[in-house]
Amino acid sequence: MRLHVIVLFSIIGSPCLAADPALTIYNQQFAVVRETIPLDLKQGLNTLEFTGTTAQLEPQSVMLRDPSGRRALLILEQNYRADPVSLEALLKRYEGQTIDFQVRNGDRIETVSGKIVRAGGTTALPEWYNRVSMNPYGQPQPSVSQAIIEVAGKLRFELPGVPLFPALGPDMILKPTLNWTIETDRAGTLDAELAYVSGGFDWNADYNIIQSESNALDIIGWVTLANNSGKEFQNARVKLMAGDVNKIQPQAGPLASRAMFSAGGVIGGFPGGPQVVEKTFDEYHLYTLQRPVTIHDKESKQVEFVRAAGVGSEVIYVYDGAKIDMNRYQGWQPEMIRQDPMYGTISNPKVWVMREFMNSDSNHLGVPLPKGRVRFYRRDTDARLEFTGEDSIDHTPKDEKIRVFTGAAFDLTGERKRTVFRMDMGRQMMDEAFEIKVRNHKKEPVEVRAVEHLYRWSTWEISTSSMPFTKTDAQTIEFRVQLQPDEEKKITYEAHYTW
User: Fold this and answer.
1) Whether 225 contacts 25, CB under 8 Å
2) Which residue, among 306, 97, 138, has the nearest Cα to 221 in the 3D structure?
3) Is the pLDDT reported for residue 417 higher than 70?
4) Which residues contact 426 (CB under 8 A, 6 or more apart)?
5) Which of 392, 41, 446 is nearest to 204 (CA)?
6) 3-84+173-198: which CATH architecture?
């Protein structure tokens, strides 16, 4: 990083270093960066050059101020350059000119001259092309071209050797650079606060859960920080924001639009003091790492952030017997689905295994949990951990129930078939009946929750049923089936629809 202060026609050089930085990272690939920059200013106009930013800074987000509020800093003009010297940049700069190339010929190194006819590289296509030729994800398609070098009257579609460029010019930069023209009301030194939004950051949460024989859970959580911003941060104070934060995406093409950016947080559960402290911030949750961390560019870093033991849980078996190919019904209107006799008649034989637990103080947890991946393990008889399934959870407040899917049960099966289908369009009514069988091949008794979706229409009633059921929402009912080892039970019901 370099920082120079130029006061109109006189130059004041001051080798300044920024204080420890602070980062607030969101898990949609951006962060708010805050740094303290020592400045020595003259009254009136000052021109500053700062090279300590990331390579993915959003220039419009830059804020430079005196945190004490005693001095006014007015940025009259700001220029951001993100084109540091590189092979591709220098080839483009000297396009059409002749330079030397070092070529190895056996044990000798020779120098040949070559004209850069075309620099090559990746370039953006014109906006009109992006409008008519857009990939499925709405991103503009780049154009990739090869370099063309003329050597001794012959064209080569590659570099003939190592290019030897002239020395750096005064308008070339080695790092992304901010140039400011600043007006201040009085002279003197100050520690200015620089803040901006930058891409190239990300983080996510992962939970590793070990299940005991009593179904109690031991939970260990990691947070992974990733820095691809083009800048290293030494001893950074890091915060993580949890919640659905709205951020407008850059306009990359006609399909670009506003998007909801989500972010997650972490919690502390270490003996001897928390590693992360959580608090409510506006409509979100803010989590602070309790010790500074160094994050190198192109580095990911893991920090253990939660540890809880003895979390009570329950294993739930769910049979959702209707197997529906949603690809077939894409674009169908509800009336069309209602009149399709084959809708929902294919049987799904799998019984789902769900794990459910309360995120509460009384259950040894009770903290806001960020969204992330949950992995389940269980010890075998040889005491080794075996992986038993994984799922993901959304942001979960305190005192809410968490239910995750871990896989399909091997020794539980289901079968579902339709037995009655009557539709009278003139009387605007329909009757549909099903027979459901669930079988338990385990050595212990289990309860299976057979879930049925009343998907034909919003107005319905169950005219007959062989077993009591619970209405769980406007179009779902649930039967709780108790099964002894090697037992099969059958459920029958009929639904009457009107519209």
Assistant:
1) yes
2) 306
3) yes
4) none
5) 392
6) Sandwich (2.60)
Helices (H) and strands (E) in the chain, counts: 3, 35
**Burial class for 316, CB neighbours closer than 10 Å (0-12, 13-18, 19+):** middle
Diameter of the chain measured on Cα atoms: 95
Q: How far is 476 from 470, CA to CA, in rounded Å? A: 9
**Token output for 116:** 């850069």
Query: Of 111, 98, 120, 110, which is closest to residue 166 (Cα–Cα)?
Result: 98
How does strand 22-26 pair with strand 233-248?
parallel
- Tell me if 363 sits within 8 A of 357, measured CB to CB: yes
What mean pLDDT do residues 133-158 have? 70
What is the model's pLDDT at position 247?
A: 65
Residue 399 contacts residue 359 (beta carbons within 8 Å): yes
pLDDT of res. 107:
87
Reported confidence tier of residue 143, pLDDT bands at 50, 70, 90: low
Bridge partners (DSSP) listed for residue 79: 179
| pLDDT at position 10 | 27
Domain with CATH 2.60.40 in the chain: 3-84+173-198
- HSE-CB at 445 with a 13 A cutoff on CA atoms is 6
Whole-number pLDDT of residue 122: 57
Using DSSP's 3-state secondary structure scheme, residue 336 falls into helix
Closest CA to 449 of 353, 383, 361, 358: 353
Strands 201-211 and 372-379: parallel
Asked if residues 303 and 290 have their Cβ atoms less than 8 Å apart, the reply is: no
Averaged pLDDT of the chain: 83
Contact partners, residue 134, CB within 8 Å, separation at least 6: 140, 141, 253, 254, 255
Query: Per-residue confidence at 19, pLDDT binned at 50, 70, 90?
Result: low
Please write the tens of the pLDDT for every residue from 64-85. 999 988 888 899 999 988 777 7
